[in-house]
Design goal:
Blueprint lengths: L7 E9 L2 E8 L4 E2 L6 E2 L1 E15 L2 E13 L7 E3 L14 H14 L1 H10 L6 H11 L9 E10 L3 E8 L4 E7 L3 H10 L5 E4 L3 H10 L4 E4 L1 H5 L1
Parallel strand pairs: 2-6, 8-11, 11-12
Antiparallel strand pairs: 1-2, 3-4, 5-6, 6-7, 8-9, 9-10
Helix pairs in contact: 1-2, 1-3, 2-3, 4-5
Length: 228
């Protein structure tokens, strides 16, 4: 992305101890209605939007952009605001490139630590916002499980029990199944043919589930049950 995105005209620069303020306006001759998709040139009004951007020379950068509202000639009474090209999405307060950088930092360091590094790099942000950016990106799909552990666990101790399934290679819980019978585990294994190793206790239901749901998988006893 260029320093000045296409479709914007810079009207002024203000540099002080707080950072760099860039004043700009949009230059497109028309904008498209988000409902019908047709272009309009009928300007209704103007207003200002503010975007934080990547820093420059260790100073924070803020855009103040004048944008327009248009009347749609095909949707009765419809007034819509134009998008700001190359900066941010609708209702965004930071540029896409700044959000991407802060998200990358948060993915490595987490919320509060990521916020501290961002502030040190002249990209001030709160820890809560870093976490929101991470959630907005979404989770990266995990590869299919190969080595799993199966054991019982208590929904309510002494009253209700289920089965927990863990990915032993990634050390994370991947599913909770109802009951401690073989049927739910068998069905789960049938739906996950990638499983090659099943670590389990020595109970009959889990052994039967592994034999019928993953007949080619290797069954092993987990270390805890070998010790006891």
């Amino acid at each position: 992305m260029p320093l000045v995105p296409d479709g914007l005209h810079v009207d002024g620069l203000t540099l002080d101890t707080s950072g760099l303020l860039i004043t700009a306006r949009t230059t497109a001759a028309q904008a498209c209605c988000r409902v019908c998709g047709r272009a309009s040139v009928r300007v209704h009004s103007r207003y200002w939007r503010t975007f934080d951007d990547l820093p420059w020379q260790d100073r924070s950068v803020t855009w103040r952009v004048q944008v327009r509202r248009f009347r749609c000639g095909h949707c009765p009474g419809r007034i819509f605001a134009e998008r700001v090209p190359g900066l941010g999405t609708r209702k965004a307060r930071r540029s896409d490139r700044l959000a991407e950088a802060q998200t990358d930092i948060g993915m490595v360091l987490g919320g509060e630590a990521g916020a501290r590094l961002s502030r040190r790099l002249a990209m001030p942000v709160s820890g809560d916002t870093v976490l929101r950016l991470i959630r907005r990106r979404g989770t990266v799909p995990s590869p299919p499980p190969r080595v799993i552990g199966v054991d019982d666990w208590a929904w309510r101790r002494g009253r209700s029990y289920g089965t927990i399934v863990c990915d032993l290679e990634r050390r994370r819980v991947i599913d909770l199944l109802p009951g401690r019978s073989s049927a739910p585990v068998r069905d789960w294994l049938t739906a996950h043919p990638s499983v090659t190793v099943v670590s389990r206790d020595r109970s009959g239901p889990y052994a039967e589930a592994a034999r019928t749901g993953a007949p080619t998988a290797t069954q092993v006893a987990d270390r805890w049950h070998l010790l006891v």
